[in-house]
Amino acid sequence: MRSNYRPIGDYIRLVDERNKELKITTLLGLSITKEFIPSVANTVGTNMRNYKIVRKNQFACSIMQVRRDKKMPVAILKDFKEAIISQAYPVFEVIDEDLLHPDYLMMWFSREEFDRQATFHAVGGVRGSLEWEDFLSFELPVPSIEKQREIVAEYNVVKNRIKLNEQLNQKLEETAQALYKHWFVDFEFPCLPSDYRPHGQVNLKISDNELKSEIAQVCNYKRTGGLPISDGRTWFVYLILCDDDSIYKGITNDLYRRFYEHYTAQGAKHTKQHKPVKVIHWEQFDTKEAAAKREKELKTGYGRTWIDRQIKKAGGLEIIKAGLPAPKTQLRTAGKMVYNEELDKEIPEGWKDGSFLEALEISGGGTPRTQNPDYWNGNIPFFTPKDVNDSYYVIESEKTLTEEGLNNCSSKLYSKNTIFITARGTVGEISIAGTEMSMNQSCYAFTEPDCLQFYGHQLAILTIKELIGEAVGAVFSALVTKDFQGKSVIIPPKYLKKLFNRKIEQFYFSIRSKEFQNIQLYKLKNLLLSRMANVKKEKEMV
DNA sequence: GTAGCCGCTCCCAGATTGGA
DNA sequence: TCCAATCTGGGAGCGGCTAC
């Protein structure tokens, strides 16, 4: 035995506290991923008084079936003050936390080597259980408590960074989804009147001429908002009513453009925090200087009194709001809405309805013969439903193909950003390829005809949600092509898809980059775990 | 009351079959 | 040849029975 290695049994003790008074209702199960999970047990008619209580920083483990699972399920309770678990699980705690840090112990349990040791010692029955005494005899290096805290802190930095990246990605994903809904479900998309020509720099990040010309063709729409069209020379002082009833004052030489910028949170700090509702007043001036002078005046006490008086004269804010030609924004109804029989609702003029398969092109996958080793373990990622994760992107796959394997199956090599939808087993999960990949027949691959994959991905997310929502009472055991064929979607004009795709591409670039970063962080996390075996006593380190 | 063992249910995915 | 349906087997997480 190395000098700083000690049996686990020297540091832990069993705890057997039952839920006799039924005070605790948080019921958890134990997963082989070494986490507590919501219990999946059918507890109808079960006597919950027999269930064991596990408290914060206590552990629960399963010593049954260790050989079968090649893992020992063990977890430390962190997210709850207390919970109950099945009486089948031993609950234990660290005797003296000044000698052994519970998180350090959990790190030791997280090592692959620990599971290998547990599997090796598991005996009895076809599934192989681990003797409790054997578990207690397993040894771990126990450096000073200061050193343990240092190791735990280093490990937590990596773990927290991974968590932070996951949270940031979740925010970006939510923002992309909200923007999609805003444009293509609520129809609050950027829209300009037919005689509109922007003056000055439009903050839309539109750089290529093709897109500009598409924007110019945008609308044969008649604007109901009634703002004056700019000639490029005239300057305006304007008042924007915001959703908190505050009034923003500014100047511009293009009211439509400026309102759009405010509306899309690209205008001013105030309108970023308080969403603009409507331009309620404007005045025209021949020069910028004259407009700026009037703006300054409106921002004084005199100006505020003048504005209040005008609002009173108009009958008050409520009357002004009720009289808005557009309920939420002057941009919203800039486009003419037309009734669509197929969809049984109004959609913007110029948009059309079509099958999901018109909006996105579909292809299938395939699996080469698994008995042929020449087909497997190459450099080509092979996506299956198992590779779906919580994030948008899938970067790595559990299985890989060789060139020969790819050539001998129905799967193609799908390019980066191809959308994968799982169709069997796990039904309706969506991933986007972070790199070139092949795919098995449990999934479908989708590409947007104009290669606007980020727009396509958002469309797929919403459509699959709808498909699953429509299946009330029925359960999808599988998704087949006719499900996609029969699903109607609204197809917006190309310029708008392109504009949207460009707007959210930075989100996707950032999400993908963080996914790659997390892969490296996971490797570092595993490295820290494997280094634990080399932790030496301070004396030995000298 | 407890330890150990076996089996149930749900879920998942690869392979095979059969029809268009 | 492609695609959908079906068959088959394994993983996961318990529940419950039996012997002691």
Brief write-up:
The chain has 542 residues and is an alpha+beta fold. The chain contains 17 helices and 25 strands.
How is the quaternary structure best described?
Answer: single chain
CATH homologous superfamily designation of the largest domain: DNA methylase specificity domains
Report the count of strand segments.
25
Largest sheet: 5 strands, mixed
**Distance N terminus to C terminus?**
20 Å
Mean pLDDT: 75
Lateral arrangement of strands in the main beta sheet: 17-24-21-22-19
Radius of gyration: 31 Å
Number of domains in the coordinates?
3
Structural class: alpha+beta
* CATH level-1 class of the largest domain: Alpha Beta
Pfam families: GIY-YIG, Methylase_S
Domain GIY-YIG: 233-308
GO molecular function, one term: DNA binding
Organism: Salegentibacter echinorum
